[in-house]
Amino acid sequence: MALESIRDKKIRSFLTMLGIIIGVSAVLILVSVVQGYNADLTAYYEKLGVNKVLVSMTGYDRTNTTDQSSALMDWAEETLADRIIGLTPDLSTTGVLKYHANTSDTAVIHLGNEQWSACSNYTLDRGRDLTAADIKGRSLVCVLGAHVAKALFGYRDPLGEQLMVNGIPMTVVGIYYPKDGSAEASMDDCVLVPYTLNRRMLGSDRITDLSIKVQGSTQMAAVLAAVEDWMAENFDTATGDYTVENGNDAMQAAEDETASIQVVLGGVAGIALLVGGIGIMNIMLVTVTERTREIGIKKAIGAQRSVIITQFLVESTVLSGLGGLIGIAVGLAGSLLLGKLIYDMILLPDPWMTAAAFLFSLGIGIGFGLYPAVKASGLQPVDALRAD
Amino acid sequence: MALIEIKNLSKIYGEGQENEVRALDGVSLSIERGEFVAVVGASGSGKSTMMNILGCLDVPTRGSYLLDGIPTHHRSERELADIRGRKIGFIFQGYNLIPSLSVWKNVALPLTYQGVGERERKARALEALAAMGIADRADSRPMVLSGGQQQRVAVARAIATRSPILMADEPTGALDSKTGGQVLQILRDLNRAGTTVILITHDNGIAAKAARVVRLSDGRIVEDQQNTPDELCPVGDNFSRAPAVERGD
């Protein structure tokens, strides 16, 4: 009977559900978009390389920095060897790359050692990586990011070719696989040269930044502590300062940030859902008032109060449940569509969130449907019959 | 023991206030099984209030009401609903059918509340509709039927439950005299088959069709007499008898 009255008033039923549909789909879409953003961010940090300890020294006496850095590297290689994947000076600059008539000024010029690609999550595609001999001999060689290789050389094989890096001729010995979409200003828009060219390229011997790639997240704390201890013991803070950073912290901070965005957006969408629920209550109130006479008739011919409450309850539950299901469908479609458009990934609403949104809409339907039904069914039949 | 017995029944609206209205003022009445009673009175005489109380649709302010020997006051809502469903069939002036349900579902509705299974519900509804001569409209919506047809559906609903008491509040009020006559004839046929009929009306001509006439005025019974019912021939009427009613029980 409840279903019949829904079918009887299709447009009204649809409008009633619309609030729930919009609410549920808004919750799902907003939350998935934030999750997509989060996934995108995590992917970015993963490309950048996770589980790194970053050591940075500032304002230090020039010669000492060089000494300290090499001392740190020597120490780390000796004592941390079984806990780390690699260790590299991690300096960078920008400049102009030139190959014949082609130039590029967006590339980042990294200065590192033969372990830099392992530390920074780059994989060699062709040719060779830097070698210890390159570092020691200050060879004028470089390894190109995928975008630089494509932008400067086109279809020509860059291996063995010479290009100008800030006016210094360098021979291309290797090319990295693309790891970041191979676009301009992406992580693939880079070139790696031996860090020992720093005096020529940066005008300074100083090695201010070092990256240590740790074997796994479980080793992070131990390595971090060891490095901190070593720095505290060997670094003269009277003439400079240093920081030892957990590279995962930035990712963690970003994740925390998106979590709070998620809460805010989810809250906004939750308000939309609540408003949808109030819409249901409104319609149920009108429906019940409109049908007070019907309630009177039913009571007169022997309907128990519970029967009448049940009828209206079923009606509002079906409305909100159906609205919830349609909302989930819309939310699913919206998430997929936005995921494709914004992040180019398959974005699905979180199953827990979906279940929660559905249950919430159902709860709203039941809660807001109950009140008018209880109110109307409590009337004396004669009073209900008198209503028009 | 009388089927219906009321003693000193009063229904007072706004008691103790300046605009206090005594719709019923100390009424006593007893109705035996199988009677055909017309409660007649002018508008405002308290006859509808009487029917509402007799039908357990409303509660008296004071006085007692025994239905089938059982007192009805201080009954829970649940019990009252059950009494209405099993003992009393209602026919209202405005038919009071539910527009969203088909004719047979309207007739079967009280059976639903009594927990009768769907198959039997439909069978009994169709039986009652056949008795009223409108079984062919079973699947229509009430709104597409004429007034007379709708009232027959309402009567079918009242008899489908096989209730021992039938209460009709101005059942012919919205009908022309011919169809009104048909409805009255149906009530008489039901009464002959054993149903106690209580007919509320303001029309003395209709009341004259009943075996007993109770006249109300200003909330009091001013007349209660046996009557030799007229044969059903409304003035200027050439109406044919309604189909004979066959009771299922």
Give a brief outline of the structure.
By secondary structure, chain A is α+β, with helices and mostly antiparallel strands. Chain A has 13 helices and 13 strands.
Number of helices of chain A: 13
Number of domains of chain B: 1
Q: How big a fraction of the residues of chain A is strand?
A: 15-25%
Number of strands of chain B: 10
Between the first and last Cα atoms of chain B, what is the distance in angstroms?
22 Å
**Biggest sheet statistics of chain A:** 9 strands, mixed
What can you see in these coordinates?
The complex is a heterodimer of chains A (388) and B (249). By secondary structure, chain A is of the alpha+beta class. Chain A has two domains: 2-45 and 253-386, no CATH class; 51-246, no CATH class. Chain A is 59% helix and 17% strand. Chain A has 13 helices and 13 strands. In chain A, the strands form two sheets. In chain A, strands 3, 4, 5, 6, 7, 8, 9, 10 and 11 form a nine-stranded mixed β-sheet that branches. In chain A, strand 9 (162-165) and strand 10 form a beta hairpin. The longest helix of chain A is centred in the C-terminal third of the chain and has 43 residues, at 248-290. Chain A is elongated and about 105 Å long. With 249 residues, chain B is α/β, with parallel strands linked by helices. Chain B has one domain: P-loop containing nucleotide triphosphate hydrolases (Rossmann fold, 3-Layer(aba) Sandwich). Chain B contains seven helices and ten strands. In chain B, the strands form two sheets. In chain B, strands 6-7-8-3-9-10 form a six-stranded mixed β-sheet, with helices on both faces. A four-stranded antiparallel β-sheet of chain B has the order 2-1-4-5, covered by helices on one side. In chain B, helix 6 (177-192) links the parallel strand 7 (165-169) and strand 8. The longest helix of chain B is centred in the C-terminal third of the chain and has 16 residues, at 177-192. The radius of gyration of chain B is 18 Å and the shape is globular. The chains are: A alpha+beta (388), B alpha/beta (249).
